[in-house]
Automatic annotation (TrEMBL):
Top-level lineage group: Eukaryota
GO CC, any one term: cytoplasm
Gene Ontology molecular function terms on file: phosphatidylinositol-3,5-bisphosphate phosphatase activity; phosphatidylinositol-3-phosphate phosphatase activity
SUPFAM superfamilies: (Phosphotyrosine protein) phosphatases II (SSF52799), PH domain-like (SSF50729)
PANTHER family: MYOTUBULARIN-RELATED, PHOSPHATIDYLINOSITOL-3-PHOSPHATE PHOSPHATASE
Positions that bind substrate: N353, I354
Coiled-coil zones: none
Family: Belongs to the protein-tyrosine phosphatase family. Non-receptor class myotubularin subfamily.
Stated name of the protein: Myotubularin phosphatase domain-containing protein
Biological-process GO terms, alphabetical: phosphatidylinositol dephosphorylation
Species this protein is from: Citrus unshiu (Satsuma mandarin)
InterPro entries to which the protein is assigned, alphabetical: GRAM, Myotubularin, Myotubularin-like_Pase_dom, PH-like_dom_sf, Prot-tyrosine_phosphatase-like
Location of the Myotubularin phosphatase domain: 195-431
Length: 431
């Protein structure tokens, strides 16, 4: 068998298929069919595994297009591993936790060739892995080996485990929690917030419904223990001690998806609370009201510390832009009115919805992929010219790059979120 030719040091661009013609990295690889795990897994690869990690499938002679590097692609029940063909070292860029995978795309690139080489140069099979951590990684496979199909199927299956216990955090070793049941952990946190740390939650307590502890201000309600009131809220809720369960039911009907105002956190020093809810159903004319909802919200405002008899101010923080809140009124939603809630102030943070956030994040990820050091198309951008940052760009190209980054809107979104969070923390701590 002829020795493989030296690998090319050129970058391979998927955006320009002409540049793929004759690239040595494709011809130098030994493309083999993937075999069942029992016969294909080498003992050397087993040494790389974590606790409870097992190899599901392996692909040989795979190219990491981002760096134009050949190696072995391994899919385990926890992650993707990419090993360099020469050193057998793990390549960090091509190693991705399965929980960090957002999307998988199968693509093909046709390599242009001379008429006599048409049959010898079929299209290359590509698998694009889009990560939640900003990575866009592309792996290249030889056609007719069925390796890409095997890897893709394994990723689809393993990236969405049927049980939470199959995730690495839970299956890698002994749990650090005395009881890993989420309901028990939630109740223990509630007990801490209510100053009842001496009490400890148990499954028997949950099954018997005997977890409804309280202090002078707040209580734990079991009204949602079967999730019949609100499917997206936990089974136990912290609510004002003076509000009975019947009033909670009435208040929930005035909130979108029955997400009534409930307490998320209590400040042990000031007595202030952080509560959450969905938008009120005030209607198109913004004139619908609920006595139960207004009473519940008013009960969240405790008296100021230091012996003062006046009640603390109620801040209602609406994360949306004001125009979005008004537009939701046409669909029955809307926002609270300060005239209906005693001593309250409505503050709009102007944060865009999740769809705008997702689109902005995708644009930022594309920008980083285009101008980063390891673009998923294998092409070096002007930012990497000669190994010097900005070395290949002129003033015009630099300005265009910065403008593209600004157009993503991501920094504006982050600023709005951080500013709103800081404002809420300040009101709770200082007033």
């Amino acid at each position: 068998m002829a020795a493989p030719r030296p690998r090319s040091t050129r970058s391979t661009s998927l955006r320009d298929s002409d540049k793929l013609e004759g690239t040595a990295c494709w011809d130098a690889l030994e493309w083999t069919k993937i075999e069942p795990v029992t016969s294909s897994v080498s003992h050397a690869n087993l040494d790389l595994l974590l606790d409870a990690e097992r190899i599901v499938v392996e692909g040989y002679g795979v190219v990491l297009v981002n760096t134009d590097e050949a190696g072995t692609l391994i899919v385990t029940n926890f992650r993707i591993l990419f090993l360099s063909e020469g050193t057998r070292n793990i390549i960090a860029l091509g190693t991705i936790p399965l929980a960090a995978i957002e999307k998988l795309n199968k693509m093909a690139v046709k390599i242009q060739s001379t008429p006599r080489q048409t049959d010898k140069n079929p299209s290359r099979r590509l698998l694009q892995v889009i990560g939640k951590d900003m990575r866009i990684v592309v792996f290249g496979f030889r056609p007719k080996t069925k390796q890409r199909r095997a890897v893709y199927d394994a990723l689809v299956k393993c990236a969405t485990p049927a049980r939470i216990w199959d995730i690495y955090a839970f299956s890698s070793g002994p749990s650090k929690c005395v009881n890993t049941n989420p309901k028990v952990r939630l109740l223990n946190e509630y007990f801490r917030l209510l100053g009842k740390s001496s009490s400890s939650a148990t499954m028997d307590m949950i099954e018997e419904g005997s977890f409804t502890l309280s202090n002078e201000l707040w209580r734990i309600s079991d009204i949602n223990s079967t999730y019949t009131m609100c499917q997206s809220y936990p089974f136990a809720l912290i609510v004002p001690e003076c509000i009975i369960d019947q009033e909670l039911l009435q208040a929930s009907s005035f909130r979108a998806r029955y997400r009534l105002p409930v307490i998320s956190w209590c400040h042990s020093g000031t007595g202030a609370v952080l509560a959450r809810s969905s938008q009120p159903l005030v209607g198109l004319m913004m004139n619908m009201r609920s006595n139960a909802d207004e009473k519940l919200v008013a009960s969240l405002c405790t008296q100021l510390a230091g012996g003062k008899m006046s009640r603390r101010k109620l801040y209602i923080a609406d994360a949306r832009p004001r125009k979005n809140a008004l537009a939701n009124g046409a669909m029955g939603g809307g926002s609270e009115s300060s005239s209906n809630y005693f001593q309250s102030e409505i503050v709009f943070f102007g944060i865009d919805n999740i769809h705008a956030m997702r689109e902005s994040f995708a644009r930022l990820r594309d920008y980083l992929d285009t101008h980063g050091t390891t673009s998923s198309d294998g092409m070096s951008s002007f930012l990497r010219h000669g190994g010097w940052t900005w070395g290949g760009g002129n003033l015009s190209s630099m300005s265009a790059s910065v403008s593209t980054l600004g157009d993503s809107g991501w920094l504006i979104h982050v600023q709005s979120i951080l500013a709103g969070s800081a404002w809420i923390a300040a009101q709770i701590a200082l007033e």
